[in-house]
Amino acid sequence: MQTDSTIKIIECPRDAMQGIHTFIPTAQKIDYINALLKVGFDTLDFGSFVSPKAIPQLRDTSMVLRGLDLRKTKTKLLAIVANKRGAEEALKFEEIDYLGYPFSISEIFQKRNTNKSIAESQKLLGKIIDMAVRKNKQVVAYLSMGFGNPYREPWSVDIVERWVSKLADMGARIISLSDTIGTSNPDSIHYLFSNLIPAFPQVEFGAHLHTTPDSWHEKIEAAYESGCRRFDAAIKGFGGCPMAADDLVGNMPTEKLLSFVQEKKLSAGLNPLAFESAYNVALRTFPL
Predict the structure, then answer these.
(1) Tens-digit pLDDT profile for the chain (288 aa)?
(2) Are strands 138-144 and 174-178 parallel, antiparallel or unpaired?
(3) Which helix (H) or strand (E) holds 102?
(4) Radius of gyration of the chain from its Cα atoms, rounded to whole angstroms
(5) Phi, psi (5° rounding) for residue 217?
(6) pTM score of the predicted model
(7) Which domains occur in the chain, in start order?
(8) 159/140 Cα distance (integer angstroms)
């Protein structure tokens, strides 16, 4: 059971890999994700069922899944989908627990990321939630541009709150606020989580924060002190959204998040030796 001193860490090798142009061999991906499965993360965001033209790096997600050793792990698997066909493909695999859907409150970014309008995306998300429920799976709705908008479109915390309310009414029970381009700051993080968490007790809120090397601590602290207990991260901060900008702001580094866990004497249920081993595999897997 999760207490106030425990947090969930969602490790995101999919997010780390998706923007890398050089194809990482399937066997190498399998070795890396199998190492991560031994660490004890709550969930692995391991792959995606999207167009190989859009994200060629992840065209082998089905093959990777077949190579994973899930016999001795409690870690759950999450796959990103961006359309009905991808959801149908992901739902064929009993091993997958969560479907992740990137829902943006930016019209421009929603078009860039999924080639759909916000209205079309909302309708699709409703269908995916219904499909997942029928298969006893859950959907994680990622609220892209949750902390700001670089496209000069209207953005405010009120807009974020309105969309959270709409998604909750549709049946979304896990909503991860996504700092897609690294624009969040402690004030916006604190305001959103401290207001949304008590207003929507039926929803589990997560923080998918992108960060520069000098701002990771203040972002984690603001989210944690505001009640967030679900954090996405990627070893070494690899990755970022390839659809967002030319210069990516990296993911929250898992090792930094773990240093915060130690500093605050929290529990994430991880095996330190297994994490060290997976960290070393990451250094061999990703081009530096």
Answers:
(1) 445 789 999 999 999 999 898 999 999 999 999 999 999 999 999 999 999 998 999 999 999 999 999 999 999 999 999 999 999 999 999 999 999 999 988 888 888 888 899 999 999 999 999 999 999 999 999 998 888 877 778 888 899 999 999 999 999 999 999 987 778 899 999 999 999 999 999 999 999 998 888 899 999 999 999 999 999 999 999 986 544 444 456 899 999 999 999 999 999 999 999 999 999 999 999 976
(2) parallel
(3) strand 98-104
(4) 17
(5) -65, -45
(6) 0.93
(7) 9-285 (3.20.20.70)
(8) 19
